[in-house]
Design a protein that fits this description.
Radius of gyration: 29 Å
Shape: rod-shaped
Oligomer: single chain
Number of helices: 3
Order of helices and strands: HEEHHEEEE
Number of strands: 6
Strand content: 15-25%
Structural class: alpha+beta
Distance between the termini: 60 Å
Helix content: 40-55%
Strand order of the largest sheet: 1-2-3-4
Length: 197
């Protein structure tokens, strides 16, 4: 938006010629100050809108996370979830399987904010509707990788690391696969020992 300042007087020859350069300079200075103020207000409004949208994305992302931690005999589960910003690239999900088994999916999308949250929403949908048997961790992660690469990550430069484990409470076994994710650790209740997978 352009700002214009018009200086006028009723009487004829009201502006002596020697004052005209100073008056033009002052009016231009005033106009620039007004323009800077208007741009500052527009930028402030844009920040408020962006913050509102970022907060809305974060709230939607929270709905993708499990509402409750499942109760599994012989397994204590606990979760702490903190994003680097309101919406982020970290994700986990519990997937109930047949024969009382439990799938645990942990994933991290490169980057932060709304773009990472969008990829996680796609990952969540793919995981929930997998045609691949979810009690086979390697095949399940392979399916997720193929679908994500075909739809998003291959063209955007984004990548996802993931870990998927299936816990069988009857056999007391864990079967898992990792796709570039940081190795998780198991803490044994009996002696407090820690084992990296």
């Amino acid at each position: 938006a352009n700002t214009m300042l018009i200086l006028a007087r009723d009487e004829p020859n009201a502006f002596p010629l020697e004052q005209v350069p100073d008056l033009v300079w002052l009016s231009n200075l005033f106009a620039r100050a007004m323009q800077a103020m208007m741009l500052s207000e527009a930028l402030s409004a844009a920040y408020v809108q962006a913050d509102y949208e970022h907060k809305a994305v974060a709230e939607l992302q929270q709905t993708l996370l499990p509402a409750e931690i499942p109760l599994i005999p012989s397994l204590d589960l606990a979760v702490e979830y903190r994003t680097a910003s309101r919406a982020g690239g970290d994700f986990y999900d519990f997937l109930p399987l047949e024969n009382s088994k439990l799938g645990l999916l942990i994933a991290d999308v490169s980057g932060h904010g709304s773009p990472a949250a969008m990829v996680l929403a796609l990952l969540h949908t793919l995981a929930q509707h997998s045609p691949v048997p979810m009690d086979q961790p390697g095949a399940f992660l392979g399916y997720l990788n193929d679908r994500l690469a075909a739809r998003t990550t291959a063209t955007s430069g984004t990548f996802v690391t993931a870990f998927y484990a299936v816990f069988d409470p009857i056999a007391e076994t864990v079967c898992y696969a990792s796709a570039g994710h940081v190795p998780p650790r198991i803490v044994r209740k009996e002696d407090g020992s820690i084992q990296s997978l």
